[in-house]
Amino acid sequence: MTQNDFLNGRVRLWQPKDGYRAGVDPVLLAASIEARAGERVLELGCGAGAAFLCLAARVPGLVFHAVEIQSAYAELARRNVEENGADATIWEADLTALPETLRQFQFHHVLANPPYFDRTASTRAQDAGRDVAMGEATPLADWVAVAAKRLAPKGTATFIHRAERLPELLSLMGAHLGSLEVLPLQARLGRAAGLVLVRGKKGGRADFQLHAPVTLHDGAAHLRDGESYSAKIRAVLRDGAALPFG
């Protein structure tokens, strides 16, 4: 087990030494949520809690619920909630079979970083925790449907996913949500986007928006040791800055 700093130590996260470990993706997801104090937020598949805890550090006064199917990660999330002083309830559950109590709530925001890889077309990870986190056992359609169902009117659902899954994700979200927006994330200037942030609104009627890509790293290639994050992304990862869609 290791304890790692996020947002320059504003969030301290216990996570397994081996297996799935949070990287920058949940931090970018958290930075994109346009939440305000007093609102309720649900994270589906929270792992050890990196995303919602980073959001809690940026926007005080939010009330969180988070769902995690793996017992070990749910326990870590509870420990991390306590040690970081967040207002959060962790539910150990399959997102397709949420507890009745949780199903009574509606949320202003739902966020999720679903497993990226289709298990039928990828190699399983040796570590069971990492395999569940990265390999899609629950179909993406279920993630989207559950997120949409848990939203209050005008609430937003935001996903981070691999760019090649964007057509599928847009199709699924369009069946439940409106006002869809996509923020592409490219590793370096001139490269194709590898990740996308996608947001939809319950009852939204605005036209679809494809925003200009955000570049994660400076320079055309990684030429030196150490990090090369752009100033914008460095502010997100180190200072807890927001990452707005527009």
Automatic annotation (TrEMBL):
Gene3D superfamilies: Vaccinia Virus protein VP39. GO terms for biological process: methylation. Keywords: Methyltransferase, S-adenosyl-L-methionine, Transferase. Residues 28-122 form the Methyltransferase small domain. It comes from the Bacteria. One of its GO terms (molecular function) is methyltransferase activity. The keyword Methyltransferase applies. This is N5-glutamine S-adenosyl-L-methionine-dependent methyltransferase. It comes from Shimia marina.
